[in-house]
Amino acid sequence: MTPWITETKPEDWKYVSEGGATIVFSYRGPYNVHFSGHVLRLRKVAGSSDAPDDVPLDTDVEQPDDPMIAFQESIISKLVPSEFLPRLVVVLLDEGWLRSFVELRDADRPAERRQRDHIDIHRQKGVLATDLIGGTPIAIEIKPKWGFLPAEYHLSPETIVQKTATCRFCMHTRFRANQGDVCTMYCPLDLFSRDEGRIRKALSALWTGWHESGGSLNNLRFFVSGKMAKSDDDHYMQLLTRFFTADESTSAASLQESFASALTQALADSPVLPLLSTLQRTLDILDVEGLSKLYARTSPGLPSVGLGCSVPDPSLEEWEDFVKVYYSDYNSWDHASSSPEHLRHYLLAYLLSATFKDCSIIIRPRPQAPSISRDGPARSFDITIIDMDIKSMDRLGKWEKLDRTLVEHYKSSAGQRRCIDSGLARN
């Protein structure tokens, strides 16, 4: 039986975090067989929270389940083993409850978020997911990003030098730093390298970026007892110190080292990062440049207003067919000489790659008594992949434009970085 959100009170839920499309709240009310141990994911719509009365959906027609659920059940689960995925179920929503909920909880959101979008109070269905940050002393969220360098065969003479030497994330970091954002030395290729020394280096860089930004960079987040920790909060820093080290008076540098040591082995031993890297790399086999060239060659009569501009989003049935092709014919195609007859499949492949480039992993300690080593408590961890939303075709043109912008900016930058893709040696 599908649960109703009205079985709970708005005050039973606490704000956790949000992304571009959804916002997450954790259930903290009295025990409920449907809601205890779960988070609520609600869809957002553009516009200030001060004016949430956008045009309502037709309430006389039953809305479909949130596409996130069907996408995970039918597509993602075919590519990622179930032990690395959260459980997702439908929850029925109520507009009156949502209005009260927004009044109570909207102030918990960051101010800049409230100016951009708000909870869609007209939705009839939301998503309940496994609560990966509550019920544990600490949970760590890492957004790894792009774990590979593109193949050369579709890159232009104007971009090949930069794109085969420096990863997409590091170029984007340089661009954002020029716009005033906090710079980070984190390189995803270190995290994805399967080399313990490089993984430790990546984790240390993630910590430095988190600490220096006051916790504002979203590539690393800590949740302590279900609440997001900030590096400028002494209370949370003491709790992190207590978790990662045997000495509560340790220095900030020692805490960083203990964090990196604790997670290095867990990430090196887990198949999660190699799986994500393989999916990203094999699905984005043409790079956006090669995809754009194939699109232009296949659709010469279409207006040149952007890659994928006139292409409809795939249905769930098309996604299911694509996964079958991915596991069969896809690997035998000559990707260096991509065929126009495969354009639709390449477009879907790129969208799916974007899902895996933009996902996060949640790292949680297993519930066991830790032993104490020289470096602090020795723990084992479970890793779960989250935030695998469907991407839309209308994003392709924006990504193509951003790709050109990043490379052009990077070409004019001083001190260009060399990123090492260890996956190239294995392919």
How many distinct beta strands? 13
Q: Describe the main β-sheet briefly.
A: 6 strands, antiparallel
Mean pLDDT over the residues: 89
Shape: globular
Q: What is the distance, rounded to the nearest whole angstrom, between the alpha carbons of the first and last residues?
A: 47 Å
Q: Kindly provide the radius of gyration, computed on alpha-carbon positions and rounded to a whole number of angstroms.
A: 22 Å
Structure classification: alpha+beta
Would you identify the regions where 5 or more consecutive residues have pLDDT less than 50? Answer: none
Helix % is 25-40%
Order of helices and strands: EEEHEHHEEEHHHHEEHHHHHHEEEEHH
Beta-strand content: 15-25%
The helix count comes to 15
Please provide a brief summary of the model.
The protein has 427 residues and is an alpha+beta fold. It is 39% helix and 15% strand. Helix 1 packs parallel to helix 12.
